[in-house]
Each structure stands twice: as structure tokens, then as C-alpha cells.
Amino acid sequence: MIITIDGPASAGKGTLASTLAKIYNLAYFDTGMVYRAVGLDLRLKGQDVHDETLAEEAAKQLTFAKMTELSKNPEFRSSEGGVAASIVSAHPKVRAALLKVQQDFSKKPTFADGTPAAGAIYDGRDTGTVVCPEADIKFFITASSEVRAQRRFKELQEKGMDTPYEKVLADIIARDERDSSRSTAPLKPAEDAYILDTSSLSIDDVLKKACEIIENH
Q1: Which residues contact 158 (CB under 8 A, 6 or more apart)?
Q2: Whole-model pTM?
Q3: Residue 183: its pLDDT value, please?
Q4: Where are any strands of DSSP class E within 26-89?
Q5: How far apart are CA 179 and CA 8, in angstroms?
Q6: Residues 63-86: pLDDT tens digits?
Q7: Spatial distance between the Cα atoms of 109 and 2, rounded to a whole number of angstroms
Q8: Mean pLDDT of the chain
């Protein structure tokens, strides 16, 4: 079984995807990691994330081993890392270079230790529309920009990162605009996706709704 979970930043995709993966014993693929890895790779080299040629070269050289190593860097999950990921993901050539890696995973999904899995849950922006358009179940998780900014602000505070709420909100709004207006694979729900607005729902509420949909399927 292949399940895709798309949506904007801090809507709750990652929490839902990782939890469902454990419940149904499926492999978990956070597709945002590939873009964060490319963005961080460029930043560590002092290169411009807006340069599509350099970003494409970094994407073509990316391996799972390299991505895993980069993910250990504190900047990987930072707010700046998210902005860099959003910028490089808007480059058509970068998306093309990383698309095959993401699609191949659905054909032979594996757990982190390399053992085969009976299916996978994708967490991303265009997994239901581009990466796995034939997925068994598609979710689109969303929430208001203010709610998502508050969630992200709390996460950063818990990590000891002193980033003003106003900046977090501005980054969320700017990222939404980039993700929704890019020419290649803009952020939008698949026509057959189940849309869940988490603005006023707890993670337990969202999980219950998602499980009901999966069980009915």
C-alpha cells in the first residue's frame, strides 16, 4: 500500500505520516529531506541556493548516505534550512533530478535498516500529484498560516532557537507563496485527495480521521 501525505509547512504532515507508518508497519519517506539536503549542501559550500545550475549538480550527486549525513547537521531542520529547501525545490531541474529517487522508493520500499516493507507513506508537497499519482490513498493536510507559524515558533523555542514569531510567520507565508506558484509541481491537493484542516484539531483527532479513511479503504 502506498499512502501520500502532502501539505504546507508545519501543517502536521510529518507527525501524521510517521505515526501512521508505525501503526500500519509501512516504510516512511520524508521527501522534504532530499530538498533540505540539497539546500544545506549548497549553503555549506557557500553557494547560492538560487543558482539552478549549482543546485541541479548537487541534486545529481545526492545519495541516501550523503543525505543521512547532512541530516545530522543542526542546520538541517532549522528555519533557514526550510527556506533553502523551498528555494531549491522550485528549480525544475532539481525536481527532475530527484524525482526518480522518490518514485523508485515506491517500487521497492524499505525500512531504515534496509529490510523490505509492504508499502510506504510519503510525506511531502507533491507526492500525491507528481511522485505517486497512483497511490492507494492520498491526504492533503493544511492549516492557517498563523496556526502553522505558532507551531513552528514553539518548536524553535523548545530547541533553544530564539527566532521572533514575526519572522517565522513571514517565512511561512513566503514559503507558501513559493510552493504554490512554482511552475513545476505547485503545491496543491490531488483531485482525489482527502483534505484535512488541522487548524482546530489535535493530532489525535487528525490521526483518528486518517485511520478511519484507511480502514474503510
Answers
A1: none
A2: 0.82
A3: 76
A4: 27-30
A5: 8
A6: 877 888 999 999 998 888 988 998
A7: 9
A8: 93
Instruction: Report the distance separating Cα 85 and Cα 176, nearest Å.
Output: 12
Contacts 24+ apart (CB under 8 A), 50-56: 50/87, 52/91, 52/92, 52/93, 52/94, 53/93, 55/88, 55/91, 55/93, 55/94, 56/91, 56/93, 56/94, 56/97
Q: How many residues does the chain have?
A: 217
Considering Cα of 87, then 132, then 60, then 95, what sign does the dihedral take? negative
pLDDT at 55: 97
Instruction: Kindly provide the b/e burial profile for residues 175-204, where b requires at least 16 CB atoms within 10 angstroms of the residue's own CB.
Output: bbebbeebeebebebbeebbebebeebeee
Could you tell me what percent of the chain has a pLDDT over 70?
Answer: 100
Q: In what order do the strands lie in the sheet with 137-142?
A: 27-30, 120-124, 2-6, 137-142, 194-197
Question: What pLDDT, in 10s, does the model give residues 96-155?
Answer: 999 988 998 899 998 878 899 999 999 998 999 999 999 999 999 999 999 999 999 998
d(CA 30, CA 118): 17
163 phi, psi to nearest 5 deg: -110, 125
Structural domains of the chain ordered from first start: 2-211 (3.40.50.300)
- How far is the C-alpha of 32 from the C-alpha of 47, rounded, in Å? 20
Under 8 Å between Cβ of 14 and 30: yes
Chain centroid offset of residue 159 CA:
20
